[in-house]
Amino acid sequence: MSKPIFSTGLRWLWLVVAVLIIDLGSKALILQHFQLGETLSLFPSLNLHYARNYGAAFSFLADKGGWQRWFFAGIAIGICVVLAVMMYRAKASQKLNNIAYALIIGGALGNLFDRLWHGFVVDMIDFYVGDWHFATFNLADTAICVGAALIVLEGFIPSADKKQPDRA
Fold first, then answer.
1. The model's pTM
2. Is 2 strand, coil or helix?
3. Which tens digits make up the pLDDT trace of 27-49?
4. Residue 126 CA to its chain's centroid (Å)
């Protein structure tokens, strides 16, 4: 028996669409207005810097000849399917988990689009302190990290189901 979509976590799929629009829009702006390697200083410690990532986080496996494009695409698809099933099985009222899953799916789909369309992921956020620069990343990566952090946070918050009533 199927349940109404809006009673499940899939009610939060609008957030996936929002993440995709923001991520792909920011990447389109970078591709239209920046040359590869070009940097624009926004604030102290924050630049826009157009970089291409042929690997995964921190350019992991970036120099491995191209097979990693399909490997990471497969992982992204698998994660999106698993999280969408988890959202379907969850109640819409389980906001924190569903928001986390939607952020991760949106970010994964944004980077998946880049991998399949361009053959690389467009990165543009360069955070630095002094001469030390963190790995360049994008808004999809940010959504994935925030989603993962929310999942960890949810693990520390007692759920209403686990609370036992006080009996005196």
1. 0.85
2. coil
3. 999 999 999 999 999 999 999 99
4. 17
